[in-house]
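Page 37, top half.
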Amino acid sequence: MLDRFICICNYLLQRAEGNCVSETLDSVIIGSGHNSLACAVHLASKGWNVGVFERASEPGGAVKTGEYTLPGYRHDWAAMNLSLFAGSAFFKEYGQELSTHGLAFAPVADCFSSVFPDGTWLGVSNDLETTAKRMAAENADDADTWRALTADFPTQAETLFGLLGSPAKKRAFAHILFKEWRRNGTGGVLDLGRFLLASPRDWLTETFASPKVRAMLAAWGMHLDFAPDISGGALFPYLEGMANQAFGMVLGQGGADTIVRAMVASIEARCGSVTCNAEVSRVIVENGQARGIELADGRRIMAKKAVIANVAPDALLKLTGDTGNTSYDQGLKKSAHAPGTMMIHLAMDALPDWTAAEDLKKFAYVHLAPDLDQMARTYTQARAGLLPDEPVVVCGQPTAIDPSRAPEGKHVLWLQVRMAPGTIRGDAAGTIAATDWETAAEPFAERALDILERYAPGTRARILGRHIVTPAMLEADNPNLVGGDQICGSHHLTQHFLFRPVRGFADGSTPVGNLFHTGAAVWPGAGTGAGPGYLLAQKLAG
């Protein structure tokens, strides 16, 4: 509080002296997603005078929470799971400080589950034997495999999290592989490489016998553009399954925006600023160097050290014009986006009555994705521009863990409908004629609710209010989510690791001096772990 008072006094003093303190900063950051805010927190902690400029009316990007249905019902707009943030290197350094600014988590013991058409279910809880017993009911060997994977996870996690948390440099990756070679020899390095190249189906079918165990884990690949047969996707079902088993899951107390509010408070406490309703029209480039930004209202904000853009790849060129590096410019223009997502926010009189088990009401996530072939078909249909005949439905039940998000005794449901085409060319089921999202939204949402009703009859009768967010609405709210792509660019191998967003620039650098790129479009990519923002801030300020 004292630091904030000093900031205000300094501001008023400089204004009284005729100085415009907002016009020249050490760094200006375009966009206020959680990566931008994490970057700003670290830079401000190193003494940089930082300003964040956001076109929307509130900070946070895809990580925000609001009363989108009825008063008192708080819904996470897009991101809900904050486990990556809670386990991040950024949180390790700044978690204690952020907690003084109101950051609070809601831990989850019953993490995720899947329901199946035959009335059965599987779920991963934080207690190993609880999870293993559920699997044993399907296949005893799979339960033993799960126990063995869990026991081996700490060793594997050191390598995998080290890889995913390293700067995107050949030397950093080589160091990790060298450590793996010293520990497990050439065979171990080759096994790691094979795993990193494997599709979810490759790994799941050679590891587990039960199709239901495979489906339960494969559903996590659909969160990150990895349908069952996409090379490089095995890593994510593995990590999500093992991390949830080992550590549980984390939601934000009161909403995912708890991290945003805390980071904004931290920035402001160090005399930084986060300005909303401030659309950036261009980056000011002079003699190959980024000098600042120009806002839509004509105001210029100059930067002495860095201009940082948290934008989708193609959007960066719209701010700068051609950079002079043809390979880089073409790489940004050709960056591919994942299929979109529809969000359905529901205010509920009660949680769904799941036919499979009453225990499902305790889980943060219930996946309605019964088998690998259905997931593969859904993905292919969406990539072809078709509304899938049976989309994957992710049912989030945050009030099962955090009752503060709704009035007493009431609930909210967070439905992600995956996959959905950004541009509609037709309907795989042949029943929806509309090819614009404004018209197709209601019937496609009804299709998703029909699927939910199939597994939890009577759910519709408990809906008190609903708000549909189409892929077009997601992009209109946040241009980084092109076509409703919530991960700001496909994570397929051609756009991952050293190739995210363009080979030679995965560390956030650009061909323009003092201009840097961050956010989910940059290595290590999407998720709430704030890796791109934190790694860039360390690169710039140490």
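Page 37, bottom half:
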Amino acid sequence: MKKYIFSIVMAIGLSSCDLNLLPQDAISPETFFKTENDLLLYTNSFYNALPSAEDVYNEDVDNVVKNSLRDELQGTRVVPTSGGGWSWGTLRNINYFLANSNKCPDARAVAKYNGLARFFRAYFYFGMVKRFGDVPWYSGTIEVNDEALLTKARDPRAMVMDSVMADIDYAIANLDASRQLNTVTKWTALALKSRVGLYEGTFRKYHTEFNLPNADKFLDACIAASEDLMKNSGYTIYKATPTTAYLRLFSSDNAIPDEVILARDFSDELQVYHNLNYYTMTASYGRPGLEKKLVNSYLMADGSRFTDLKGYETMQFAEEVQNRDPRLAQTIRTPGYTRIGENTPLVPEFGATVTGYQLIKFVSAPKWDTFNKDITDMPIFRYAEVLLNFAEAKAERGTLTQADLDRSTKLTRDRVGMPNISLAAANANPDPYQAQMYPNLKGANAGVILEIRRERRIELVMENFFRWDDLIRWKEGQLLTRPFKGMYFPGPGQYDLDKNGRIDLVIYEGTKPNVPGAQLLKLGSEILLENGAKGGNIVVNGHINKKFNEARDYLYPIPKQERLLNTNLTQNPNWE
């Protein structure tokens, strides 16, 4: 049985202010923690802290957009009364285990499962620091009368992140070195260290307003962890044919162990499902679609820049998707697309995508289209991310070589038959289209960093909300205020989206036409174009004002109730 699917439920999670309460209703330390199996059973509960399927695929920042906007994009977040992510039950569970695990006489087992607990403590605190910045560090259980700990102030981010890295290092040293899809191992811990090092290093580099030291130390930690995994783990980039490999990696019912380091498991046999197929093919979940600027960012198949082509801004769908990076046609429906196991070509369905660029990443066979009935495994860590972390950290440190790119980004591009990034060419001729997205990026390596950011955006789209984290750590929240757009249409008319001789879409004014088999969209209500009847790109949520407060919105606020309970908690800047 997989670790994520439990036959025993340990009901030990409590509310955010219950750091001092011990889970004695479920576990008695006098009778438990005696064998390795006890340690295994207890630590199974830690896996609940990992992302759900929806947390993996439900990206909605500026890569994938919907017909509604998150509060973060509208600038309408407020200081919550309670909740708001300030929850500590997971940590209490972990620290309780660490306080009692040494009751097991098997020292090897204790070290192994302590390593697992410390992995999850690091994972927990990394999430808290990303969200709140400074947070109280608790490394042990708290007694009910320990007022000093219960009302302690927030510890400095620098101290907390040093503690996070110490926990990860312990996990690396003590976890199994086997490769297991559904179990945290040494390789998972190295992948986490790679992720944490890159995030924290670049956050400190670009967010000078926080005066955080040692950015390079974290970038170096990312590089070292990535190299260890690259040299010693045996993971590789999954390859099949260039026109199918990327799509197959995500549409496989079972995670592909060549590349996936850790996955959340789903099973028809055990009736553990998620909702991906239904999410992408109905109007029920916001009609998600790729945003125009991301579609424009995919290179041509020969490695040249699409946005260097004359007239790229007014290319219609069938033309703009031709001869592009094959990952585009394996991420959205393009002409000739068919469902897995079927041979009927399908065009984008505007009832299911607000931009016209309909998602197919993670979409599996039609038999899983029923509501909440999909079983594709969801990757939480995969090798491609580690390679991209490595390349970006090296570029940010100024130590990147062409040989480094050849053992990192080249592998993700080889999967689909794309030319690798050229370090010299990228820095000699930075892409102006990419550069206007990231005004905070400067320096001699700006050109190659732009290309690595492009590669990261394309390779990791629709996974684990990476895009939000990336924009936050790069200090590029201003990107979220720009208009979100979709396909280009010159105006009302009939459109053959896949150029097969049949009309697929009619954009009309006035009376609804009778065009059998075509999708009918009324201009001004069912579809909005930038210039109305004169055409333009689809406008998404044009009526909603987007704001991002550069002096406030890179962190979340501390809830009011928590500050009333603990008057030593300070609020984040400009959230008062």
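Margin note: Residues 16 and 87 are 4 Å apart (CA to CA).
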